[in-house]
Amino acid sequence: MSRAIIKRFGRLQTEEAWVNLGEHTLELNDRQYDINQLAFAAPIAGMIYGTQLNYKGALTALGGAVNEAPYMAAPKAPILYIKPANTIAANGARIPLPDDVPKLAMGAALGVVIGHSATRVCESEALDYVAGYTVVNDVSIPHASVYRPAIAQQARDGFCPIGPWVIERDAVADPDALGVRVFINGELRQKNTTANLIRSVTRLLVDVTDFMTLNPGDVLLVGVPEDAPLAGAGDQVRIEIDEVGWLENTVVPERDWMKEGAV
Predict the structure, then answer these.
(1) Burial class of residue 211, CB neighbours in 10 A (0-12, 13-18, 19+)
(2) Strand pairing of 160-168 and 88-89?
(3) N or C: which end of the chain has fewer CB within 10 A?
(4) By mean pLDDT, which of 52-66, 108-122, 157-171, 239-253 is the weakest?
(5) Is the peptide bond before 253 cis (omega within 30 degrees of 0)?
(6) How would you write the chain as a 3-class SS string?
(7) Transmembrane segments in this chain: where (predicted)?
(8) Do 135 and 162 contact (CB within 8 A), yes or no?
(9) How many whole angstroms separate alpha carbon 237 and alpha carbon 186?
């Protein structure tokens, strides 16, 4: 079993629990639950920072365009963007599909949750600043350019499901060797691994904290693999990350999402 931090729906505070990923159970306050018995809220409270082009395949997919305008060269530092508070959604929440968009890209991402204020950390100590890891769906409207922040495509309401928990750091043997899978309606649509990161988790923490402070509760997304699968209205999406867990959400028309409430 792995120690985890959860936040139950309707509760103000997070709680410590023990999760058995293999048996799909959770132990909380000396009582055991099937995970489906509990309604989770998003278990984080800080800023969420995304990272562009940190998978080798994602950079390769740009091809020769990476050396043309407006890029002119491969990135020499992490390309970051923000998933603001309005995007945050919980496990089980519905993802709104705008009326004029046929399908959304499901961005499977490992979320690195910061435990201690981190500024200019060294690589050998980088993981000491990590509280744990979580599963994130970095949802976006499909778009080609990564030159400017795609706010209208990535920062819409409900476009960042996260959770259901934060698994403690030491429960993950190697964050740079985790299988990542995306299922849509039960069908495996994407398979990758964090071994394909350009900047490892530790290197990313070093490079980011060289120019900005990450605070306790902040979440740094290590990146989204190339060819993010698409999902439309009614599709059920499940993202799995080895040793961390799984995240499940359903895509619904935005007009229904607004009418019935963002839950």
Answers:
(1) exposed
(2) parallel
(3) C
(4) 52-66
(5) no
(6) CEEEEECECCCCCCEEEEEECCCCEEEECCEEEEHHHCCECCCCCCCEEEEECCEHHHHHHHHHHHHCCCCCCCCCCCEEEEECHHHEECCCCEEEECCCCCCEECCEEEEEEECCCECCCCHHHHHHHEEEEEEEECCECCCCCCCCCCHHHHCCCCCEEEEEEEEEHHHCCCCCCCEEEEEECCEEEEEEEHHHECCCHHHHHHHHHCCCCECCCCEEECCCCCCCCEECCCCEEEEEECCCEEEEEEEEEHHHHHHHCCC
(7) none
(8) yes
(9) 8
- Tokens encoding 113: 């949750």
Q: Which two tokens stand for residue 208?
A: 């980011």
102-121 residue pLDDT tens: 999 999 999 999 999 999 99
**How many whole angstroms separate alpha carbon 54 and alpha carbon 186?**
27
Extract the tokens encoding 209: 């904290």
Q: What is the pLDDT of residues 120-175, one digit of tens each?
A: 999 999 999 999 999 999 999 998 766 667 788 999 999 999 999 999 999 999 99
Of 139, 145, 13, 15, which is closest to residue 86 (Cα–Cα)? 139
Delineate the domains of the chain, giving CATH numbers in brackets: 44-260 (3.90.850.10)
Length of the chain: 263
Q: What's the gap between Cα 208 and its chain centre? A: 17
According to the model, what pLDDT value does residue 151 have? 84
